[in-house]
User: Fold this.
Amino acid sequence: MHPADHLCERVAATGAATCVGLDPVVERLPAAVRPSDPLDARSCAEAIERFSVGVVDSVHDLCAAVKLQAACFERYGAPGFAAMERVLARARQSGVAVIFDAKRGDIGISAEHYANGARALGAHWTTINGYLGSDGIEPFLANGQGAFALVRTSNPSGDALQALRLADGRSVAEAVADMIASLGASSVGGSGFSSLGAVVGATKSAEIAALRARMPHAIFLVPGYGAQGGTADDVRAAFTRGDQGALITASRSVIYPQSGGGDWRAAIRAAATQFAAEIRAIAGGRA
Amino acid sequence: MHPADHLCERVAATGAATCVGLDPVVERLPAAVRPSDPLDARSCAEAIERFSVGVVDSVHDLCAAVKLQAACFERYGAPGFAAMERVLARARQSGVAVIFDAKRGDIGISAEHYANGARALGAHWTTINGYLGSDGIEPFLANGQGAFALVRTSNPSGDALQALRLADGRSVAEAVADMIASLGASSVGGSGFSSLGAVVGATKSAEIAALRARMPHAIFLVPGYGAQGGTADDVRAAFTRGDQGALITASRSVIYPQSGGGDWRAAIRAAATQFAAEIRAIAGGRA
Assistant:
């Protein structure tokens, strides 16, 4: 199935244009799943796997997608990579849309290898970096896969390159947006959205609206809501209409909820429910 | 030891400002190391490990560095990642400078995880993508590590973004070069070179010379020589003087030499020797 059509179906089925980000860090795990030896890579990998499986099982029916941060697993070498395989397989099996947040970017056979690797992992989507141009993007759209390319990021130093002004008046981020819109035009599904989406941080709503106009068929993957300072107006600007065309992500605020004791999985489930309700209140869509 | 000082010592010791790229592809392996089952990931991972270890053992004293393409190993999942760990450990142990060609790029704790992961793998250097600004670069310079940031790539679509002209007259690649020069200024070693280097494809010598002037303390990692069309003039422009300041890489022309039969390791050793001699003839340096 076309990855954008699949994602739109997920949003419709769950009523939640949300993505739960899995960025597991050993130091923040609930006591019940902490590693027996925090200095041992295998023990840490097992712990983040237990935690991640618990998160997937707790939220898969409450969000359109889950996004797994590759760095958190790669950190622990081959045992971490094996844990990542099992978590992604579990997510894929649950029916949720699966985003491999790896920010890969290479060319030729290397890009093909990364794309095939992501497919073998069970990812519907991979996040990618388009600095190398179409050679670094198109391989990630083969075989029915989808990709979210970094366009505008919300980190403090994101401006250093992305906000530079070109001679033709566009910002660098807008030039990347035009490239993404052009490359994605040939892979628009029945939903009206392309298998090439864009990562657009929830920073300034005026900028998000301008990028939305440049990429009418791209699904926006929007980090930065809540903890990182994104507001309701920022989020609203990312959608095409209602709850269509954007996927708002939250990681820490959902997977490390501030609850006083009790079952950690229930607390995460409550946080994912609350997150979906917040986005629904902003964007509309079915409750 | 400072990674740039280490690399300069390696160039002096081997008389070869060269890097052998390990991009193993199952279809091109010598008959002696092909996988027993080319459709099985574990069998393929074992085959590329046998091959890669053979390449490292054959070339480590003939080149300053080896560069391992992460995608070729990630392609085969956890068994591929485990193979990559062993190949990198072997390379590290041999004394050659080790470059993890992963083109990673993320921010915050994720960037720290990638950097720590690369260190655990034994890499002296990691290739990175600077689209996210300093947040995506500085973590890779911690703990005595070095990084090569993508500045100008030689692939056909590299121009799409990198050659765009800014309002201030610079190209996007030149703006990235200025960012790299600025971020790397505080980590210059006794050799006069920074632990933050630059990937600059061997495309046009005039462009390379302009980037060289903007990044006087950056070691240039230069792919694209030979097979991809880079010329002697292109290569010469990357060095600061003599054989200083650049590392010319070749992958396919060395690891898949066109020789008629015989010992594949001897053929690779001969190709690495020939490659070093070519670069020495262009750049000078001790024979």
User: Anything to note?
Assistant: The first strand of chain A starts at residue 18 and ends at 22. Chain A has a mean pLDDT of 95. Chain A touches chain B through 56 residues (CB under 8 Å).
